[in-house]
Amino acid sequence: MGWVVFSYSLPSKASSSPRVALWRRLQRSGAITPKAGVYVLPERDECVEAFQWLAQEVQQAKGEAVVMRVERFEGLTDPQIIELFRDSCRKKYSEIESEAAEVEKSIHATKKSKSNSGILERLEKLRKKYAEVAQVDFFESAEGAGVASQIRNIQQALRQGTVSDPAVASVTFSEYRDKRWVTRPRPHVDRLGCAWLIRRFIDPKADIRYATNPGPDEVTFDMRGAEFGHTGDLCTFETMITAFGLREPALRLVAEIIHDIDIRDGRYARPEIGGIDIILKGWLLAGLPDRELESRGIELFESLYTAFSRRPRLAER
Question: Does residue 165 lie in a domain region?
Fold first, then answer.
């Protein structure tokens, strides 16, 4: 397989700030150093771009840098290089695992009614740390699955004793193809997510209308008396994926984000929530028409789904 290599040097009289900044960036990139002064990443577009940006920073600091594509290293096989990447992630996962164990102890040692807020904050930090490592876990270290499972267990423990998910009646896809759908105007997170879900998984050619008065043959969602709406503490998106039996891990992650933005109960505390929430609010404040909101929402949720499909561990149930 192919590799991308980065090497650089800074003037001896350069201040420590550029050196420290570059070192930190290299650490966050997930690069390994099989030889002193040589940094290696898999030959992927995002990795090449990361090294190119670093090379530009070195040049701005009056240093020299080179980015190279390499097919193989003398005296070092591809499996050995891959193991170096996995070993680097293994150490980081171990730190997260220790922190997660402390959070688990806190859940068992204190009453949930008094500790949920603090534990949710710690859980969010754990998930952010996990996401940072998973992003550069290019070769899917086995330890990553264990840490993801540990974080899911914490989440499940926090949910114990709360109202259980209500029963949702199952439906078939054939019942809802070639239908006209309707929901309230000015669609926000739940309705935009549902619009994407309908077009992505139920009926790509679906006709979706935004109005307050549904027609006699229209399928209503996320509005008063809707066929698909909030069920118990589930948002409409969650109701729909449950009703249609959609169990893909990536969809569960999208559902968690929509749930927290829509219901605001802090149930999942995913790190992506704040940024997505701000984007959606910006669209509404800009006064975009309903069709434009839908179009942008579909692009947003399709991108989230694609990204999560490649790293589904935290969505597994």
Answer: no
Domain count across the chain: 3
The answer to whether position 167 is within a domain reads no
Write down the pTM of the prediction. 0.65
- Residue 100, C-beta contacts closer than 8 angstroms, at least 6 positions apart: 126, 147, 150, 151, 154
Could you identify the residue written with the tokens 């199952």?
170
pLDDT digits (tens, 9 = 90+) for 148-202: 888 878 877 776 655 455 789 999 999 999 999 999 999 999 999 999 999 999 9
Q: pLDDT at position 165, please?
A: 59
Query: Which three-class secondary structure state does DSSP give residue 266?
Result: coil
φ/ψ (deg, to 5) at 50:
-60, -45
Question: 185 and 105: one domain?
Answer: no
> Mean of the per-residue pLDDT values for the chain?
89
Angle at 147 between CA 33 and CA 31, to 5 degrees: 15
Containing H/E element for 40? strand 38-42
**One domain, residues 97 and 217:** no
Q: CA 132, 134, 138, 142: dihedral to nearest 10 degrees?
A: 140
* CA-wise closest residue to 243 among 251, 180, 296: 251
What type of residue sits at position 213?
N
Closest CA to 32 of 76, 87, 77, 73: 87
**Residue 113: both structure tokens together:** 């009614």
pLDDT-flagged residues of the chain (< 70): 14, 110-117, 159-165, 311-317
In whole angstroms, what is the distance from residue 210 CA to residue 206 CA? 13
pLDDT of residue 314: 47
Helix (H) or strand (E) run with residue 64 in it: strand 64-70
